[in-house]
TrEMBL record:
Biased composition (Low complexity): 33-50
Lineage: Bacteria, Pseudomonadati, Pseudomonadota, Alphaproteobacteria, Rhodobacterales
Protein name: Uncharacterized protein
Segments of skewed composition (Basic and acidic residues): 17-32
Region (Disordered): 1-50
Domain of life of the source: Bacteria
Length: 50
């Protein structure tokens, strides 16, 4: 029996129906690790100064 023709609800697609999300945040472009380390060191120094 073909249950796809029995009138049940269709499965929802998880993909968005527009391409604007791709323009906002391109994948694969992470900030450099040096920037992360600099932020972490600054936060640690600020916490130690309190």
């Amino acid at each position: 029996m073909d249950y796809s023709k029995s009138g049940g609800p269709k499965r929802r697609s998880t993909a968005p129906k527009h391409g604007e999300h791709k323009l906002q945040e391109p994948k694969g472009k992470q900030p450099p690790k040096e920037a992360l380390l600099a932020r972490m060191k600054a936060a640690a120094q600020a916490k130690a100064a309190k």
